[in-house]
Amino acid sequence: MRLAGGVVGALIAIPTIMILSPNFDEIGAYLTAIFIAMLIISYLSTSTTRINYAGLQAGISFILAVATLAPSTDVTEPLWRIWGAILGLVIATAVFLIRPEFSGRALAERMPPFLRAVISLIPANDVPPLDEDRLRALQMYTSRAYQEMLSIAEDARLEGYRSGIDHRAVVDAAANLARIGYRLADVTMDRGAWSIEMPAPIVEARDAFENALRRNLEAWLASFERLGTGASCDIRSAIHPPRYDDLEHAFLALDEIITANHLSEVVELPEAARVALFSDLETYRRITNRARNLDRALRAVVVQSEAVGA
Predict the structure, then answer these.
(1) Among the listed residues 116, 308, 294, the one whose alpha carbon sits nearest the alpha carbon of residue 227
(2) What CATH number was assigned to the domain covering residues 103-309?
(3) What are the residue boundaries of the structural domains of the chain, listed by start?
């Protein structure tokens, strides 16, 4: 479809150049011709999943060809651009035919760094707290990784079943993982309030929740790392992640300790500490919900493992 789209764009661009450049010098003629050509190409882009990608590539090839179109009797320069675009598409197609690279492979390579970045945002007692620069860098990487996942999902949509992955599940998983990362960044920034001495049961319950979340994400990380080694395996059978119930139970235990068992001690804390404590509790509640959605989406991502491990 990529090559076919490039050829279609070239076939539209060549007569446009041959007619316009030698015969017209009014901008209106150029705008009208480009509008008509892009209208046809846009119509192709709104067609079925396979054809719309060809329409997208046709539009790119056409714009490259007419980018510097101007009144002139020499039409060889834009024609050379068309030839260069077609040659590049031919080479890309040949490489793909020799060694196909579907979006399933890209997912297996890009998901582990995304998971590691989010795991790095989980506070840990045995690790020094993240400084502001490191925290900002992880937040920026999380945003970039999310955009990469969306690109992979779009490629998977165009490739269809051959990609080996469900593009809708990829979008869902990436959105939930990114939001977990954003929430964890907020928790890390507010962790200073925990420097005030908190009741030991609250601290222990908080640590238990964070450890449960870390185990869950690390289990999925191990799954994708195994896929990245080239082994042909299904994520669902590669490893059995901790039950989501473990994370939910850890949150419910933390919620009960804060709002019931030790509420009298919480009330006696300084106002800033109380605000941070209940803010973190609400953040953990949302993280728990996002983790449930993430778990469901990741289990649905791989629909044909052979394409991922190829």
Answers:
(1) 308
(2) 1.20.58
(3) 2-98, 103-309
Listed in sequence order, the DSSP H helices in 46-102 are: 49-66, 76-98
Q: Which residues of 3-14 are buried (b: 16+ CB within 10 A; e: fewer)?
A: bbbbbbbbebbe
- With H, G, I as helix, E, B as strand and everything else as coil, classify residue 165: strand
Alpha-carbon torsion (167, 172, 177, 178), positive or negative: positive
CB of 114 closer than 8 Å to CB of 142? yes
Q: Are 104 and 308 in contact (CB under 8 A)?
A: yes
Q: What would the pLDDT profile of 202-237 be if each residue is shown by its tens digit? A: 888 999 999 999 999 998 898 888 776 554 444 445
Which DSSP state fits 129? P
**Whether the Cβ atoms of residue 63 and residue 6 lie closer than 8 Å to each other:** no
Specify the amino acid at residue 227: L
Please determine, for residue 128, whether its predicted confidence score (pLDDT) is greater than 70. yes
The more confident residue out of 69 and 118 is 118
Rounded Cα–Cα distance for residues 143 and 174 (Å): 10
What is the per-residue pLDDT across 245-255, written as a single tens digit (0 to 9) for each?
788 999 999 99
